[in-house]
C-alpha cells in the first residue's frame, strides 16, 4: 500500500492492494467554464495536477449552462474518520479535496487565487506609535 | 496606520496596525474618508461571533479615495472617489452573474471555513471574522479592496461623502428588503426597525409604489426620523398592540410585505459560548421576536423578508404559520453590487437622501466612544460615522 502525503494528510493508495478503488466519496464543484477551458488538451488544472496519481477525476456538463461539474475522489481505501472527528485529528482528505477544488474554481473563474490580508503578526507595524482610544464599557 | 481594533468582549481600541498592501492583481488600496458603524458589528463587539480575534479591525461600510491600484484594475484610477460595497464578490461566478453577490463562490480567501457555520462558504465581507474572507475592516486610515472593479463604484460629484457612504451597505440592504420582498404598487408594507436599514427599506418601498408604509420601533427619536424622512407611519411597539394595529391599518388582511430590519437584540446579545466556539456553528440561540411578529402579522400569501443580522440559530420560530398562511420567507446579506449604481444615481438626483442617518460624527480616535453610543442607542444615535483623516 502506497502512502502519499498531500497537504498535511495521508492518502492511502489501496488500489494496488485490491481494496475497492471507488470507496471514497466524490467531492464535487461546479466551475463556470466549459470542460475544454477547464482542462485544455486534457491537462489537469492546478492545484489538482499534483494529485493526479492519488485521486480519480470525473467531468460532466452542469445543468442550466452553469459550466462543468468537476468531481474527484481519493483512489480508494482511504481510511478516514467521519466528519468532525476527521477534522479534529487533522486527517480530513475530503476537506482537503474540497479546498483544492475551490481553488481550481477560483483560478478558472477569476484568474487568480484570492489572498487574505496578511495577519498583523507577519508584518511589523510602521510609523509612530498609535493612540489608544477609550475602551467601550462592558 | 491607525485602526479600530476589537480587543475582546465589549472592548475596542484604536491601535497602530500595518498598512494594507496589494495582495492580488485585482486589488486596490483606498484611503478611507468615511466609515460607519452598522448593526452587524454589534454581535462581534459582544463576542457572539466565533472566529473574531483580538486585534481584528472592524468596519465594512465605507467610502474613500483610491490610493493605489493593482495591475488588473481597469475601472479605477488613483484619486477616484469611490464607495465600496461591504460584500466582497468576484463578479464572475454563477452567483454573481445572477446578481446574488453576497453568495459569491470566490469572495473569501479563507477556503472552506464557512462550511461548518453555513453549509457552504458564502461571499466575503470586510471587518468580519476569517470565515467572512480574511479582509481587514474599514475603520482605519486605509483598507485593501479585493476585486476592485466589481466592488468599488465612483461617486458622482454632486453626492456628498456623508450621503454616499450609505450606498456601501445600508442603502442596498434597504432596497433589497423592498425589492426581494416583492413590494408592488398598492401594497401595505410593515418594517420592523427604524435604524438606517429600516428607514431605507421604507424609502425603497415607497419608491416601488407601496400605498402605505408602517415602521415599528421603540425609540421615539428614530420613529420621528422615519416619519420626517421617509413619510412612513410609525408604531411604538411598547405603546401599542402591533399585530392588532397592523390589521387595523391593512383592512384586516395584514401587511402584504413584512420586512424585519432589526437583527440582534439591543446591545448585541450574549457572548458566544465555549461550545459554540468549539463547534464553529455560530452564535447562541437567538429569540427572533421581530421575525416572529412579522410572520404572524403578514397577510396570507404575503412575503416576510429578514434583513437583520442573525449569527446562528433561532428558537421558537413559527414555521407552522409560514406553512398554513402560504408565506414566502426570504432573506439575504445585501447584494450591493446589483443596486449601488442605481442608488448613487438616485442620490445624485436628490431622490435618495441618507445623510441624516449620520447622527454622530467622530475622528477615528474617538471611534470607541461612537460605538458605545451606537450600541446603546444613546443620545439618539442612529449611526456613528468616522473620518479617519479628519
UniProtKB/TrEMBL annotation, chain A:
The protein's matches in InterPro entries, at most eight in alphabetical order, are given as: START-like_dom_sf
Q: Where is this region: Disordered?
A: 117-138
Give me the stretches of Low complexity compositional bias: 128-138
Domain of life of the source: Bacteria
What name is this protein filed under?
Uncharacterized protein
Organism of provenance: Micromonospora antibiotica
UniProtKB/TrEMBL annotation, chain B:
- Cofactors demanded by this protein: Zn(2+)
What Gene3D superfamilies is this protein classified in? Medium-chain alcohol dehydrogenases, catalytic domain, NAD(P)-binding Rossmann-like Domain
Alcohol dehydrogenase-like N-terminal domain mapped to chain residues: 25-150
User: Which key words tag this protein in UniProt?
Assistant: Metal-binding, Zinc
Q: Which Pfam families match?
A: ADH_N, ADH_zinc_N
- Span of domain Alcohol dehydrogenase-like C-terminal: 196-265
Q: Which domain of life is it from?
A: Bacteria
Record's CDD domains? Answer: FDH_like_1
Q: Which InterPro entries match?
A: ADH-like_C (IPR013149), ADH-like_N (IPR013154), GroES-like_sf (IPR011032), NAD(P)-bd_dom_sf (IPR036291)
Q: What name is this protein filed under?
A: Glutathione-dependent formaldehyde dehydrogenase
Q: Origin organism of this chain?
A: Micromonospora antibiotica
Amino acid at each position: 500500500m502506497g502512502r502519499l502525503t498531500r497537504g498535511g494528510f495521508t492518502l492511502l493508495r489501496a488500489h494496488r492492494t485490491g481494496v475497492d478503488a471507488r470507496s471514497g466519496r466524490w467531492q464535487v464543484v461546479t466551475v463556470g467554464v466549459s470542460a475544454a477551458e477547464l482542462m485544455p488538451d486534457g491537462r489537469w488544472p492546478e492545484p489538482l495536477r499534483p494529485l493526479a496519481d492519488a485521486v480519480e477525476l470525473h467531468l460532466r456538463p452542469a445543468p442550466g449552462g452553469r459550466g462543468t461539474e468537476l468531481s474527484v475522489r481519493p483512489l480508494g481505501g482511504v481510511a478516514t474518520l467521519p466528519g468532525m472527528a476527521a477534522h479534529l485529528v487533522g486527517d480530513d482528505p475530503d476537506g482537503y479535496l474540497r479546498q483544492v477544488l475551490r481553488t481550481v474554481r477560483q483560478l478558472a473563474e477569476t484568474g487568480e487565487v484570492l489572498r487574505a490580508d496578511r495577519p498583523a503578526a507577519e508584518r511589523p507595524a510602521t510609523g509612530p506609535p498609535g493612540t489608544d482610544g477609550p475602551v467601550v464599557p462592558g | 496606520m491607525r485602526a479600530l481594533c476589537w480587543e475582546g468582549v465589549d472592548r475596542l481600541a484604536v491601535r497602530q496596525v500595518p498598512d494594507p498592501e496589494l495582495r492580488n492583481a485585482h486589488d486596490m488600496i483606498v484611503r478611507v474618508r468615511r466609515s460607519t458603524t452598522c448593526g452587524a458589528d454589534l454581535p462581534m463587539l459582544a463576542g457572539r461571533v466565533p472566529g473574531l480575534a483580538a486585534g481584528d479591525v472592524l468596519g465594512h461600510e465605507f467610502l474613500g479615495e483610491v490610493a493605489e491600484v493593482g495591475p488588473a484594475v481597469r475601472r479605477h484610477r488613483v484619486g477616484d472617489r469611490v464607495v465600496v460595497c461591504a460584500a466582497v464578490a468576484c463578479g464572475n461566478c454563477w452567483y454573481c452573474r445572477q446578481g446574488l453577490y453576497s453568495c459569491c463562490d470566490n469572495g473569501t480567501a479563507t477556503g472552506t471555513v464557512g462550511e461548518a457555520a453555513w453549509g457552504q462558504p458564502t461571499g466575503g465581507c470586510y471587518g468580519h471574522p476569517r470565515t467572512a474572507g480574511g479582509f481587514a475592516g474599514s475603520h482605519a486610515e486605509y483598507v485593501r479592496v479585493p476585486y476592485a472593479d466589481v466592488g468599488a463604484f465612483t461617486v458622482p460629484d454632486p453626492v456628498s461623502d456623508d450621503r454616499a457612504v450609505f450606498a456601501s451597505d445600508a442603502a442596498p440592504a434597504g432596497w433589497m428588503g423592498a425589492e426581494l420582498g416583492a413590494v408592488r404598487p398598492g401594497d401595505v408594507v410593515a418594517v420592523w426597525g427604524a435604524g438606517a436599514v429600516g428607514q431605507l427599506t421604507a424609502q425603497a418601498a415607497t419608491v416601488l409604489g407601496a400605498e402605505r408604509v408602517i415602521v415599528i420601533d421603540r425609540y421615539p427619536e428614530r420613529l420621528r426620523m422615519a416619519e420626517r424622512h421617509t413619510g412612513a407611519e410609525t408604531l411604538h411597539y411598547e405603546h401599542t398592540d402591533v399585530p392588532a394595529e397592523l390589521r387595523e391599518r391593512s383592512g384586516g388582511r395584514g401587511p402584504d410585505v413584512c420586512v424585519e430590519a432589526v437583527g440582534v437584540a439591543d446591545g448585541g446579545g450574549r457572548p458566544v459560548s465555549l461550545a459554540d466556539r468549539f463547534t464553529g456553528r455560530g452564535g447562541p440561540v437567538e429569540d427572533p421576536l421581530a421575525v416572529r411578529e412579522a410572520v404572524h402579522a403578514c397577510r396570507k400569501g404575503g412575503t416576510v423578508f429578514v434583513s437583520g443580522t442573525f449569527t446562528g440559530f433561532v428558537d421558537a420560530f413559527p414555521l407552522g404559520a409560514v406553512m398554513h398562511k402560504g408565506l414566502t420567507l426570504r432573506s439575504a446579506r445585501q447584494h450591493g453590487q446589483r443596486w449601488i449604481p442605481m442608488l448613487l444615481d438616485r442620490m445624485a438626483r436628490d431622490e435618495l437622501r441618507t445623510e441624516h442617518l449620520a447622527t454622530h460624527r467622530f475622528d477615528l480616535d474617538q471611534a470607541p466612544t461612537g460605538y458605545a453610543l451606537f450600541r446603546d442607542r444613546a443620545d439618539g444615535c442612529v449611526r456613528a460615522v468616522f473620518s479617519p483623516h479628519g
